[in-house]
Amino acid sequence: MRQLRTIMTATLLFMTCMAIPSRAHDVDEFDARVVTDKWHVSAGGYLVEFKTDAQAGFGSFVGTAVRLEDDLQVEKDEVTARLDAFYRWRPRHTFTFGYFFLERRGSTTLDRRVEFGDRAFDIGGRAKSTFSTKIFGAGYRYSLVNTGRSDAGVMVGLSINDFGLELEGNAVAVGDTSSVSAEFSGATTQLLAPVPSLGIFVDHGLTSRLILRSSATFLDITVGDYSGRVVETRFLLEYFFWNDLGVLLGSSSTDIAIDRRDSRPLKLSYRQSGLTFALSYGGR
């Protein structure tokens, strides 16, 4: 993981040096594609590291707080696909879209009792877990500054976050104090949460071929039995090596915290950060 990060960081520096104009008129001939692309699509890989905390209860039982990657041995890092796109309706008005999906699994011998949902898994038992993540985002960007080389402004968005966590193993019902032996069973909790966000973005053409794209979004909100917080940052370099075809490298991070207070209470803290590498295509 660290080796790959080092290689990709070196590649970013190489791209930057390669694209620095060698003649003064290279800048004068800048083609302003930062603001002229009508639409743009990027698809590629996402090398991600995770930290996920979950506490799933049932009725008056609050459940046991667990770190999935440590307590349940769910994979800490993965490579998955990611898709992003935007459509520029007017010079200052842009719609954005994104999709991310991943399923991680783990298996471990529990070193403590874990109450999850309506089931209790005893110490020393074998437990298998599956955690799935689906994130679809859509947003709107308004350009406050649009010079032909720089595009910066504000953005509003809505991400549909679909999280699923399943735990299987020898378990008894939560609150059961009888001498009945544990039986193999499972408990599942699902969370479908639409989370709005507000943020800023800056796209700047370093040269006619190299574009810096950066954004940051944040929102903390409480509605009824739900509380949520989302923080997301992206820092990307895009190099168009042939006409409208480019390569995109950079880093991004997402931090989501959701608290559901109903008959099946759930606290979820989901953090992912990693490197993005993708092919991109822009149409004018």
Describe what you observe in this structure.
- This protein has four helices and 13 strands.
- With 284 residues, it is mostly beta strands.
- The protein has one domain: OMPT-like (Lipocalin, Beta Barrel).
- A ten-stranded antiparallel β-barrel has the order 1-3-4-7-8-9-10-11-12-13.
- The two termini are 37 Å apart.
- The N terminus is likely disordered.
Query: Level of helix content?
Result: 10-25%
Quickly count the helices.
4
Give me the Rg, rounded: 23 Å
Termini separation comes to 37 Å
Total number of distinct structural domains: 1
How many strand segments?
A: 13
Largest sheet: 10 strands, antiparallel, barrel
* CATH homologous superfamily grouping: OMPT-like
**Class per helix and strand makeup:** mainly beta
What is the CATH class designation? Mainly Beta
CATH architecture: Beta Barrel
Examine the coordinates and then state which fold CATH places here, giving the name of the CATH topology.
Lipocalin
Give, in spatial order, the strands making up the sheet with the most strands. Answer: 1-3-4-7-8-9-10-11-12-13
Low-confidence segments, ≥5 residues, pLDDT <50?
Answer: 2-29
Give the overall silhouette. Answer: elongated
- The proportion of strand residues reads over 45%
How would you summarize this macromolecular structure in one to three sentences?
This protein has helices spanning 2-19, 24-28, 33-36, 68-71, and strands spanning 39-56, 66-67, 77-90, 93-109, 114-116, 119-121, 126-146, 150-173, 183-205, 210-223, 226-242, 245-260, 266-283. The protein is mainly beta and 284 residues long. A hairpin with a 2-residue loop joins β3 and β4.
